[in-house]
Amino acid sequence: MLGAKVKAKTKQKSSKVSNQHIDRSSEDEGMTNAPTLGNEYHDDFADDRSDYSEEEKDETEKTLEKLVFGDDEGFLQSLKRKSSAKGKELVLAPGAAVEASDVDEEQDLENVDDADLFFLDSGPGTGPSGPNITSSAGQTKDSEKNDQKSSIWWDSDDDRIVVSLASNSRLRKLRDTEADDVVSGRDYIHRLRRQYERLHPRPSWASAEAIKSGHARKRRRRDSAGSDIVSASEPEDENDSEEMSSLQAKPLAELLRSADSLIDTSATSKSSRFKLRPEVVDIHRLKDITSSSPSAITALSFHEKYPILLATAGPASTVFLHHVSPQSLNPNPLLTSLLLKRTPLHTVEFRPSSTTSTSSDLTQIFLSSRRRYMHTWHLSTGLIAKHTRPIYGNKSARATQRTLESFRPSPCGRYIALIGSSRKGGGIINILDASTMQWQCACRADGRGGVADFAWWKDGEGLAVLSKSGEVSEFSINERRIIARWIDEGNVGPTTIVIGGRSGKKGGLLGPDRWVITGSTSGIVNIYDRTTWGHPPPPPSSSTTTPTPSPSCLLSNAFTPSSPTPIRTLENFTTPISTLTLTPDPDSTLLIISSRWKKDALRLIHLPSCTVYRNWPTASTPLGRISSVAVTTWGGSGSGGAVAKNESGKGFWLCVGNEKGRIGMWEIRV
């Protein structure tokens, strides 16, 4: 046994040596014996795999494999069943109707594109209607041809790009049929655009017709506007302003054309008076004017002819126009609004009707902010004009007018006065022509700190300028100079001034006004009666033996006392006076004073008795911190306000705006 084992080991070693000799010889001879060596190695791997032979499958595993994958016998039987059923399909009889319940939905939709199985319900007229739910390849080619015709330029590289739609799961929705796979770059762009417009339909303003109409509106505006007038908004907001103008023009034009039926023009008497009894006022609250402004109402004003209320939310750069109709089912509806982006409004005023113009429609609104330009809004046409160079005709005026934020139009409608910057301890007011926006003259008022406020005479021929030192300068536009100066009694830190009423005298040097009222930072209000100001003293009577010569100071000061005494001083407030408002009736029988620095700080004063009404406002009157006040007349004749024919009696409408953006409305009955 031992000898046999030794012989076997010796035989194995000799075979290994012979195999190594064969390998070296095969490498020397080249690749001629490679197949032989490959077969030898293959046999070795086969021997290794034979060591790990698969185990035989049991009956359970064979049954499961047959159920899942099938076998040859089942495949042949299925072929026999299909061949035997050929030609035995059910066919509908002629004229028979097909019901929806008899149709297999999965069989109908098996060839439908995935993107066409669903649609966005964005309103009536959207989504598939009828059987045309799929788009054919012919329609795609036609749309491509239309795109090629409408396109101005195509990139040649798009034709060389090839995109596979079936390989990417996100692009399969772009296929027209299931067989679609590879498309060109141009076709791929078209299908992307089609899919996007299917999910996001093109808006109406982006259609070709809307674009053409927009270009036509631009041309009309350029033709109608002057060289100094440009669009109100910035260039990027030009389309928004044009759309807004087209929406505003139609309703306001119709309202202004039909407003003559609401205005009583038959009565031409100017002597109608609104008589109020002192101490107790007959006032009733009306429904508040709804305002969606999130900021304070900084300005309120009524139109002198039409029943329109102008409300300004200065910090929000928004202007609201309301139709004043408190007795209707929908009281005081909003007519329109205007938003000037990035322009916080400071002063907004109606332009009064000019007495010298022949045009019957001068319904304009002036808007200004802390900028070197201002805007004009024409209500009848909806045009918004931007005046960029209103005072560039005079070099000195341009140097003193840094901003146009504070202005006031004249009652005659011919001029606009702008408060300039303080210079050398005094104040300057530049006066422009309201039609051409050209500089006319300037008023230089003496006094430390500049101009606190100013007020126009009722005839528009002059103005009273209140300096911050308490001196009032009377400026005449006809003479282009200051004709009188006087000192406000005890007024330290003046804030505002107002002029109104009628003196009843003609030929005065200081206009036809009777009342001049000033307010201060200490809450004191002085009321002056200037009936005799600007008129020479009456001649002495015959019974007087010694004539009384007129003082030379009165003659040189336009017969105006240099230190007049007020007929009444009101001390109801201890906070600065922010608003002084007189009613627009001929006699200005009511004065409204308010202060925004204290809650519910408002008082009504009867003129000429100068008594404060004690029954209103009460502790429960919802006023808040008052930021603006406006008053107009209703009923009567010759009232100077919006007079309604169907109103019985007469009185005043009072509107009060506060810092929360609310506008309260009250009715004062005469």
Automatic annotation (TrEMBL):
Region (Disordered): 1-67, 117-151, 203-247, 529-552
Biased amino acid composition, Polar residues: 129-140
Subcellular location: Nucleus, Nucleolus
Chain intervals with Acidic residues compositional bias: 234-243
Biased composition (Basic and acidic residues): 40-52
Entry keywords, A to Z: Nucleus, Repeat, Ribonucleoprotein, rRNA processing, WD repeat
Keyword Transcription: no
GO CC term (a single one): Pwp2p-containing subcomplex of 90S preribosome
Biased composition (Basic residues): 1-14
Source domain of life: Eukaryota
Protein's UniProt keywords contain Nucleus: yes
GO biological process, any: rRNA processing
Main location: nucleus
This protein's name: Putative small nucleolar ribonucleoprotein complex subunit
Organism of origin: Phaeomoniella chlamydospora (Phaeoacremonium chlamydosporum)
Lineage, opening ranks: Eukaryota, Fungi, Dikarya, Ascomycota, Pezizomycotina
